[in-house]
Specification:
7 strands, 12% strand, binds guanosine-5'-diphosphate, alpha/beta, Rossmann fold, Single alpha-helices involved in coiled-coils or other helix-helix interfaces
């Protein structure tokens, strides 16, 4: 792939070039990694920044309906919107259940929208890197808002929160005891909780659910990166397109405050350091997975088992012989 040709096209907002660049960052091939690295460095010089919104929710809560309605609203305001997905489950099922264009029909036809489903990769680390780099590519391509969608399963929320400026948790109306179903850690990550499906017969339940979560949020420890009143819980209806404008207003209010108070910049800096740390760890782990390293591990394990070497001495040997640069 010709990086020198690709770079100006991405900067010009060419969606086909963007799609090709994302395919490049998804590739595990050594030469592709080198090209992707060069491309990302060249694009980083332009320092374009989008508002990155992480969005999580269990299947069926209305994520794709919400992204379609919310995305269409933003496009109506003249903004360009990219949608990416972080979907660790696709590694098991082999198919993507997120970021699927058929689930966002109107949005996928818009020229100011870009939708990219989750890649199938073997581990969350791979998906995370690809998504983070895809976010950077979308920013370079001049998108104003990048929505990063994930399902509510364990680790993927952390991954998405670490690449977002704000994190939105989408919930469905439910009975009071369901509050327990949302893990505390995820509640603590949320900047905004949106109780979706606040329409028709579900509206009174949605109202109660929203009040319950608002109460639960108030009990959480105050975070320095929040202005008064945040994190918040609001009601929306993705189908009837109610509450979406208010959700957008709240997101902007939060981001404006964080920008003015240095938290936005601090968060991006901390995220960059987090990903640096992750890259180092993953590169080290990858060295353990070469055939030679695996053979050495097996050999040393044998010696540890018989007592010929202590675990610490064996580890020392392993590190010295196989994990050096
Ligand atoms: P996802 O799996 O989280 O992406 O959820 P979907 O967007 O596919 O929605 C799951 C189901 O909930 C679909 O049948 C939607 O029509 C329905 N749904 C989504 N948003 C709303 C809403 O605001 N109100 C109502 N009543 N139903 C909704």
């Amino acid at each position: 792939m010709d990086i020198e040709q690709l770079t100006p096209k991405i900067l010009a907002g060419d969606r086909r070039a963007l799609a090709r660049a994302i395919t490049l960052v998804e590739s595990g091939r050594e030469d592709h990694r080198a090209q992707a690295g060069a491309l990302l460095s060249a694009l980083a010089e332009h320092k374009r920044q989008a508002l990155r919104i992480g969005l999580s929710g269990t299947p069926g809560v209305g994520k794709s309906t919400f992204i379609e309605s919310f995305g269409m609203m933003l496009i109506g305001m003249g903004l360009r919107v990219a949608v990416l997905a972080v979907d660790p489950s696709s590694t098991r099922s082999g198919g993507s259940i997120l970021g699927d264009k058929t689930r966002m029909e109107r949005l996928s036809r818009e020229k100011n929208a870009f939708i990219r489903p989750s890649p199938s990769q073997s581990h969350l680390g791979g998906v995370a890197r690809r998504s983070r780099e895809a976010v950077a590519l979308c920013e370079a391509a001049g998108f104003d808002v990048v929505l990063i969608e994930t399902v509510g399963v364990g680790q993927s929320e952390t991954v998405v929160a670490e690449m977002s400026d704000l994190f939105v948790l989408l919930l469905a109306p439910a009975g009071g005891d369901e509050l327990q179903g949302v893990k505390r850690g995820i509640m603590e990550m949320a900047d905004l909780i949106l109780v979706n499906k606040a329409d028709g017969a579900l509206k009174p339940v949605a109202s109660r659910t929203c009040a319950d979560y608002a109460g639960a949020l108030r009990l959480l420890r105050k975070r320095p990166q929040d202005p008064e009143g945040f994190p918040k819980a609001l009601m929306v209806s993705a189908v009837e397109e109610h509450g979406l404008d208010q959700a957008w207003t709240e997101m902007q209010a939060l981001i404006d405050w964080r920008r003015e108070n240095g938290h936005w910049q601090k968060r991006r800096e901390a995220q960059a350091c987090y990903w640096f740390d992750q890259e180092v760890r993953q590169a080290l782990l990858a060295r353990l997975h070469t055939p030679e390293a695996q053979a050495a591990m097996a050999d040393l394990s044998g010696q540890v088992a018989t007592g010929a070497l202590t675990p610490a001495a064996a580890a020392q040997q392993m590190l010295q012989q196989h994990l050096r640069g």
